[in-house]
Design brief:
Blueprint: E1 11-15, H1 18-24, H2 43-46, E2 53-58, E3 61-68, E4 84-90, H3 99-117, E5 121-127, H4 131-139, E6 143-149, E7 156-163
């Protein structure tokens, strides 16, 4: 399946299965995006409900994943409960082909997250070098609230938030 063959309206979010988790654990990205590699991840961890991983499917084909909760956090930022952290990725062979697919996948994840969790806001943490991810989330209404150096390796990350409803 190629990027051009994917109908954005056909994208759906579904529970992550063991087969999906085992597939995700093989995903490797080209540098400098290797920071997002899932290769070697433990499928049992990906299936842990506390991490909030979900499959992004077109038909029955796994094209990506979305997560809701702590998986979207990078140690080094003072996260709080004012927003739901969300993260995700697209199958490596489908990346870097324009903003359309990434935007559609993230939008589908936000729709799912809004319906499932009803957060006051969503928060994403993006590696500062990742201009394409940043453009994509900004096109969906996210605004930067800060930057920080990750505790793990000192790499810079940006934190962006999108308010869903007025906070009381």
């Amino acid at each position: 399946m190629r990027h051009d063959d994917i109908d954005a309206a056909a994208i759906r979010i579904a529970p992550l299965t063991r087969e999906h988790a085992e597939d995700l654990a093989t995903w490797r990205y080209d540098p400098p995006y290797a920071v997002y590699d899932l290769a070697g991840a433990d499928p049992d961890e990906l299936l842990d409900p506390a991490l909030g991983f979900h499959a992004v499917l077109v038909g029955e084909r796994l094209i990506g994943f979305r997560s809701f909760g702590p998986d979207g956090q990078v140690p080094g930022w003072d996260y709080d409960d004012t927003a739901l952290d969300t993260g995700g990725g697209i199958r490596p062979s489908l990346t870097g082909q324009g903003v359309g697919l990434g935007r559609a996948v993230i939008a589908a994840g936000l729709d799912f997250g809004r319906t499932t969790f009803a957060p006051a806001a969503f928060r994403v943490t993006v590696a500062s070098f990742n201009a394409r991810a940043r453009r994509t989330v900004e096109s969906l209404g996210f605004e930067q609230v800060g930057s920080f150096a990750a505790l793990r390796d000192g790499r810079m990350f940006d934190v962006l938030v999108r308010v869903e409803r007025p906070q009381t």
